[in-house]
Amino acid sequence: MPTSKPSRRTVLGGAAAAVALTAVPLPPQSAHAAGSSAAAPSYRWRNAVIGGTGFVTGVLFHPSVRGLAYARTDIGGAYRWDERAARWTPLTDHLGWDDWNLLGVEALAIDPLHPNRLYLAVGTYAQSWAGNGAVLRSDDRGATWTRSDLTVKLGANEDGRGAGERLLVDPRDSDTLWLGTRHDGLLKSTDRGATWAAVSDFPATPSGSGQGITFLVAVGRAVYAGWGDGTGGTSNLFRTAASTAGGTTWEAVPAQPTGASAKVPIRAAYDAHTRELYVSYADAPGPNGQADGSVHRFAPATGRWTDVTPVRPGGSDTFGYGGVAVDARRPGTVVVSTNNRWAAVDTLYRTTDGGRTWTSLKDAAVFDVSETPFLKWGAEQPKFGWWIQAVAVDPYDSRHVVYGTGATLYGTRDLKHWAPQIRGLEETSVIKLVSPPVGEAHLLSGSGDIGVLYHERLTASPSRGMATNPVFGSATGLAQAAGRPAYVVRTGWGDNGNGAHSGDGGRTWAPFAAQPSLAHDAPGPIATNADGSVLLWSFVHWDGTKYAAHRSADNGTTWTEISSFPKGATPVADPADPTLFYAYDTDTGTLRASTDSGLSFTERAGGLPAGDSQFQLVAAPGRSGDLWLSVKWNGLYRSVDGGASFTKVASCWASYTLGFGKAADGADYPAIYQVGSTETITAVYRSDDEAKTWVRINDDRHQWGWTGQAITGDPRVYGRVYLATNGRGIQYGERI
Predict the structure, then answer these.
(1) 153, 243, 584, 661 — which has fewest CB within 10 A?
(2) Is the pLDDT of residue 25 over 90?
(3) How far apart are CA 733 and CA 721, in angstroms?
(4) What is the CB-side half-sphere exposure of residue 445 using CA atoms within 13 A?
(5) Quick check: 578 and 557 in contact, CB under 8 A?
(6) 7 has pLDDT over 60
(7) Under a CB-based contact definition with an 8 Å cutoff, are residues 219 and 202 in contact?
(8) What DSSP string describes 74-111?
(9) Are residues 475 and 333 both part of a single domain?
(10) Which residues sit opposite 69 in a β-bridge?
């Protein structure tokens, strides 16, 4: 199960740049870097396979095309299911650095009458520092898109993100679309999403909760809207009036359920055979914080409501209800999910008689997670799931049921045997990357929510699952001794320890014998010197509070505070000299260094950029004192004297993350990989000549939003690079 500590989601500041209406994907661009005239090399980009790892917030099967389905995620974009290949195809990787906020998908919509049409409402955060949302529309199932920017914000990674689809094609007119927002009421488009206008007569008024409209669903020829703000009087469910189902008049649905168990309508599904609507409710929007809930059935023709709740929450068994899906082939057959049920563990309930009786599918479930072993979370068996709010029944196969969790998408074809149905869908938020110079694995990774992984293959999920002893929910540090690569250390948010060491390159782990008291609430990055004899552990609380670093010279048995180390800084070990450590003090713009194996630090170069929210100090492999300082908008700096002085690199305008890989044939310096910017574009670059010139190695189809966390080349394979993304897992590129 995931840790209770802060989740993997990286929150980014700064509004996204405004972008004009654009059809995408665009043709590949040539190299963009100051001082470079070389043509961009051809690269093939793929995910290093982990399998899911993030919150699948919605799944839609197309009602008129067998085997066609779409999935949305909170920070990792949207996907289309390819039945023949049995895998998901990512649809939003074209969104680039300036559009990082659009990688969260608030809602999906399909057109039952036009199978090739797909719509996405995108926007990850509704905070003041985030950019406005947008609607993406496609006529070829997501292969290409046309974008319409909105004047309002959406919140695909905020509370309520597991609620129903807030975007809907009107059941009477395919040119009309509805979009429910969190803070700005109901919007309507009459030109297939090209332009939008507010619906002035929608009855409810938004409040500060940020829920607003929780779902839109077609019920016959009418549209129903769930309302999650609690400001609709006694009503939280509305519909287009029967006499004007085209949508100019809205009214509250009469006699609807009330009370804590029906405070927030989460999702709804309409059974066209019985002409009844099923609605799931909770006392909070979720995915966390729910303690009560219910399920109700509504017959629009008679106005009758029926409570069909499978099991009432109560006592220590508290939870809400989330997903609800009807079987298009069998009248009265419905599947609903519990959510936030930690005591008894969440489940799916299924009824074949309209909710009079229910069966828990968890009770007979047999799981096979051999394809994604991390799902065991260090235990013998995986959990049935948590954060279950997306549930779907295949309209062409009643026994094909899928449901999303906080880490995967499970599917069954017989209602008993379950396995991840997740190939191609990768949503990890990656924090640390290490590519060892020797050994079985070419890659070690540290991520949010799934800790540290040992990638013995790039094309299959790590067979050992997530690192155990202890299990981390999220990694904060990962480091390898440069001169002793079998020795690796890691830190993170764990319930049974926050630091561990490995003597076999990261295959197996043992916890530090002791840890500073700060480690439990503020585990930060860690470094080990070149021979693995000294550890430096920095401490940063998730709220940003910085603390003094600690040092151990006995493999984590005892620790001593190092007051001269800049609080909260990331320690960097010299790769050649075990007595040298470095740290960049971003508060003062000063490089500090230690020549006594981390016992004390003194100031060296000053006058460097200060106050930048994103920086990275990297030591070039195999060289003592060769340091590179990547400082976001301030660019790139280099020192060849151990930080005594720095020179600004003229070939790039902005630098976000930097790493090294095997040198090109005939070159005597490692290849440098960078996520950086010229004045025209932020992209992934490679330099084979010590940053004199650069070539762009990604293209406009492969951008993945925000990619500024980590990058590293492979020290054994020239041209191979590993890139951390915030929601699209680990991307790796190879020359072709």
Answers:
(1) 243
(2) no
(3) 5
(4) 34
(5) no
(6) no
(7) no
(8) SSS-EEEEETTTTEEEES-TT--GGGGGGGSEEEEEE-
(9) no
(10) 61, 81
* Angle at 729 (CA atoms; ends 724, 730), nearest 5 degrees: 50
Positions of E strands within 123-164: 134-138, 145-149
Q: CA 271 to CA 281: how far, in whole Å?
A: 18
| DSSP-assigned letters across all residues of 462-491 | -TT-B-TTTTEEEEEEEEEETTEEEEEEEE
Q: Name 138's bridge partners.
A: 118
DSSP 624-639: TT-EEEE-BTT-EEEE
Q: Minimal CA–CA distance to 90: which of 145, 134, 41?
A: 145
Which helix (H) or strand (E) element contains residue 546? strand 546-552
SS3 263: coil
Burial letters 408-427, b for 16+ CB under 10 A, else e? bbbbbeebeebbbbbbbbbb
Length of the chain: 736
Residue 242 pLDDT level (bands cut at 50, 70, 90): low
Dist CA 185 CA 179 (whole Å): 9
Structure tokens at 386: 């948590």
Mind listing the pLDDT tens digit for each residue in 310-337? 999 999 999 999 999 999 999 999 999 9
Determine the pLDDT at residue 495: 85
Q: Are residues 333 and 440 in the same domain?
A: no
Residues 504 and 537 in one domain: yes
Residue 257 lies in a domain: yes
Identify whether 25 is preceded by a cis peptide bond (ω within 30 of 0): yes
Residues 396 and 442 in one domain: no
644-663 burial code (b ≥16 CB/10 A, e <16): eebeebebbbbbbbbbbbbb
What mean pLDDT is reported for the chain? Answer: 92
- In eight-state DSSP terms, residue 9 is P
DSSP 707: -
Q: pLDDT digits over 509-540, tens only? A: 999 999 999 999 999 999 999 999 999 999 99
Are residues 536 and 564 located together in one domain of the fold?
A: yes
Q: Mark residue 53 as left, alpha or beta (left: phi above 0; alpha: psi -120 to 50; beta: remaining).
A: left
Question: Tokens 């999220």 — which residue?
Answer: 474
Residues 400 and 492 in one domain: no
Domain around 322:
51-420
Q: How far is Cα of residue 558 from the mean position of the Cα atoms in its chain?
A: 36
CATH number at residue 645: 2.130.10.10
Contact 587, 569 (CB under 8 A): no
Find out whether the peptide bond into 571 is cis, omega within 30 degrees of 0: no
Instruction: Please report where in the chains the tokens 């003592």 appear, as a residue.
Output: 624
**CA-wise closest residue to 8 among 613, 511, 725:** 725
Work out the number of other CB atoms within 10 angstroms of the CB of residue 359. Answer: 15
Could you give the C-alpha distances from 608 to 566, 605, 652, 653, in angstroms and in order?
Answer: 15, 7, 17, 16
Domain boundary pick from 420, 440, 475: 420
> Hey, what amino acid is at 413?
R
Query: Per the omega criterion (within 30 degrees of 0), is the bond before 566 cis?
Result: no
Query: Is pLDDT above 80 for 586?
Result: yes
User: For residue 180, what are its two tokens?
Assistant: 């429910």
- Compute the half-sphere exposure of residue 346: CA atoms within 13 Å on the CB side of its CA: 30
Report yes or no on 623 lying in a domain: yes
Shared domain check, 390 and 345: yes
Indicate which residues carry an active-site annotation. 74, 449
CA–CA–CA angle 13, 15, 16 (5° rounding)? 115
The two most distant CA atoms of the chain are separated, in Å, by 82
Give the count of domains, the chain: 2
Is residue 671 within 8 Å of 661, Cβ to Cβ?
yes
* CA dist 695 → 30, 128, 668 (Å): 8, 35, 18
Dihedral pair phi/psi, residue 376, rounded to 5°: -75, -20
- Which residues fall within 8 angstroms of residue 577, CB to CB, at 6 or more apart? 530, 624, 625
